[in-house]
Amino acid sequence: MRNSNVYEERSLGIYDDDPYLDHANGGEEKKSSVFGFIRDRLTGTSSGEQTKGYFVQQQLRAQLAHDLWWLVLAVFVIMIIEGGQFERDPANFSVFNVIFETVSGYGCVGVSVGVTYDAFSFCGSWHKLSKLVLCAVMLRGRHRGLPVAIDKAVLLPSEAQYQAEEEDAQLRMERTVSRHGMA
Fold it and tell me: What transmembrane ranges does the database entry give (predicted)?
């Protein structure tokens, strides 16, 4: 996985590992890798090598830290406001339904659960303050954007990138012309 913050659609060179280094470090790597793996699992740290799993894990942590606290706060406030309705109508009012409505609103999905006693959605049976909280969550979700530190494709290619792509296209064109000229 690429660990860059610039959106690029260029070819990457892939090179073989040096077999001499693999052979020279073979015994030490096996010994240290077992202890390193155990140490990493017990302490939750890495020995400097950032793997694909680590990269994805860091992205998920940062994204959840950025988005999740809004949802938790909204669910908490709605649960406090709607506390009396949980006792009156436990069939319709559940924690799952509140979380489902809040996450659906935050993601601007438009999916809602209904109530059994009328022809409107679950959040239609909420108090006005709960509806306002849900509207705030919907606005926050709609206009949140992705943090630049998480979304690696946010930055557009620079002018230098454009120039490099033009040079690559020119080289490809010259090679194509020279191949057809030889044939």
Answer: 68-86, 98-120
